[in-house]
Amino acid sequence: MTIDNDSSLILTSFIKLSPGGANKLYLTCSALFASISLVAFFNIFKSITSKNQLLLTEKYIQAPKTPTSNKIVIVDFENINNYTETSVKGNRFLNIYHDGGTLRIQASSLPKKGDFKHVKSHILSRISF
Q: Among 17, 20, 61, 121, which residue's Cβ finds the most Cβ atoms within 10 Å?
């Protein structure tokens, strides 16, 4: 425990901390890691309890801006300018460029593996450049 610390801390030959300075460093690092853990827990909880859904119709696609976002984006198929498919470390993304920006659909955010192929084919069958 840092309260009982009576030793100094030498990080390099230039950085030497007294016992009080070492205690402050330990407490600061602990607080930093605790806050990072809380933010990570909140984001995991938010993504698990998210009720966001991807909706495909004949005229538009409705999806969250990002997998954990509460902002819903509606993109008419006629407003799609381009698309690309990318893969990062085995995770596939469908980037849809439209008049209002970019919508990215992530394969890992869909319920089943085959859903990404179905979503992509549905969108591509309704757009023309």
A: 61
CA 58 to chain centre: 29
**Calpha distance 120→94 (Å, rounded):** 7
Place of tokens 């990404």: 116
Q: 111-126 pLDDT, tens per residue?
A: 888 899 999 999 999 9
Sequence spans of domains, the chain = 2-49, 55-124
Q: Which CATH architecture has domain 55-124?
A: Roll (2.30)
pTM reported for the whole predicted model: 0.62
SS3 state of residue 105? strand
What tens digit of pLDDT does each residue of 48-88 get? 777 778 899 999 999 987 766 778 899 999 999 999 999 99
Non-local (6+) Cβ contacts of 58 within 8 A are: 126
Q: How far apart are CA 47 and CA 65, in angstroms?
A: 13
Q: b vs e for 89-120, b when ≥16 Cβ sit within 10 Å of the residue's Cβ?
A: eeebbbebebeeeebebebebbeeeeebeebb
